[in-house]
Write a structure and sequence with these properties.
single chain; 266 residues; alpha/beta; 2 domains; 4-stranded parallel sheet; 4-stranded mixed sheet; 7 helices
Length: 266
C-alpha cells in the first residue's frame, strides 16, 4: 500500500503487507505481522506498537536506544525517544554552552538598560499619571496579576477566534492591534511597577540625596527586578509575574479614567 497511514484515538491497525509511507499512531495501537514491511518511519504517541517478532513497544516505556527495527525502513519514534532527542539537542545547543553566557548576559543587561530609558522617559513625559498608577500597585499585586493574565488570555482567544472567522488579512491586522496594545500596556505598567517598588526601597532616603525622588525610585525598582530576573529558572518567572502586574496596572488605570455617566432625576 502506498502513502502513509495515520490512526487516531483508540483504533487498532494490522499491517500484514507493505506500507510504502509512514505509520503514525495517536492514542491508537498497531500490530505488524511477520514479513510485513514499513518503508517510512513509525511514530507512536499514547498507544502501542507490536511486532510479532518482538514484544510490544509502549510509547510510554520505549527506549530511545533502539530507534530502528528490521521491518521498518526509517526510524521508530516514541514519546520517550522524542523527549531524549530534545534533551540531547538542548544539551548540545550553542546557547547552552558556558562560552555563550557572557553574550547572553550582556544582551539581557542591554534590554534592562532599554527598560530604564523607557521608564525614565515616561516619568519625564507624564510624571503625575505614572505616579498615580504606581500608587495603586501596593497591596494589589495578586489582583493586578490576575487582571493582566485575563487580558493576555482574552487577547489570545480573540486572536484565535478572529483567525477562524475573519479573512486572513483582517485577522492579522486585528492581531497586530491587540499585540501593540498589550506591548504598550506592558511598558506603561512595568514603569509604574518599577516606580512603586523603588518608592519602597528609597522610602527612608533623605531629601536632597541621590536616592531621593521618583527618577531614583524608578531606577532602584528596575535594578531590583532586573537583578531578580537574572537568577536562573526563578528569574523569568519573576519577570513574567511583574509583566502581568504591569498589564493589570495599565488596565486598572484605563478603567479608572473611563468616563462615568450620571443620571439625574428630573
Amino acid at each position: 500500500m502506498g502513502g502513509s497511514l495515520v490512526l487516531v484515538g483508540g483504533g487498532e491497525a494490522v499491517v500484514s503487507g507493505r506500507l510504502g509511507g509512514s505509520l503514525v499512531l495517536l492514542g491508537a495501537s498497531a500490530t505488524v505481522r511477520r514479513g510485513a514491511r514499513i518503508d517510512g518511519d513509525v511514530l507512536s504517541i499514547g498507544g502501542s506498537l507490536t511486532f510479532e517478532e518482538n514484544p510490544p513497544v509502549s510509547s510510554a516505556l520505549a527506549s530511545s536506544r533502539a530507534p530502528s527495527h528490521s521491518q521498518v525502513g526509517g526510524r521508530v519514534r516514541t514519546v520517550t525517544a522524542l523527549e531524549a532527542s530534545v534533551a540531547t539537542e538542548l544539551q548540545t545547543s550553542p546557547a547552552a554552552s558556558l562560552a555563550q553566557w557572557p553574550f547572553l548576559l550582556s544582551f539581557r543587561l542591554a534590554l534592562l538598560f532599554a527598560w530604564l530609558i523607557a521608564s525614565l522617559g515616561l516619568l519625564a513625559l507624564a510624571p503625575r499619571a505614572l505616579g498615580a498608577a504606581a500608587d495603586g500597585v501596593p497591596g494589589r499585586g495578586a489582583f493586578l496579576a490576575a487582571l493582566g493574565a485575563t487580558a493576555v488570555l482574552t487577547a489570545a482567544f480573540a486572536g484565535a477566534l478572529a483567525l477562524s472567522l475573519l479573512p486572513s488579512r483582517l485577522a492579522l491586522g486585528g492581531g497586530v492591534v491587540f499585540l501593540t496594545a498589550l506591548v504598550a500596556a506592558k511598558v506603561w505598567g512595568l514603569a509604574a511597577v518599577f516606580l512603586a517598588l523603588g518608592r519602597r526601597l528609597n522610602a527612608t532616603a533623605p531629601r536632597g540625596s541621590a536616592l531621593f525622588g521618583d527618577p531614583a525610585a524608578a531606577a532602584l525598582g528596575l535594578l531590583a527586578l532586573g537583578a531578580a530576573s537574572l537568577v536562573p529558572v526563578a528569574g523569568p518567572l519573576v519577570w513574567g509575574a511583574a509583566s502581568l502586574v504591569g498589564i493589570g496596572v495599565s488596565l486598572a488605570t484605563a478603567a479608572s479614567r473611563a468616563p462615568r455617566v450620571a443620571l439625574a432625576l428630573s
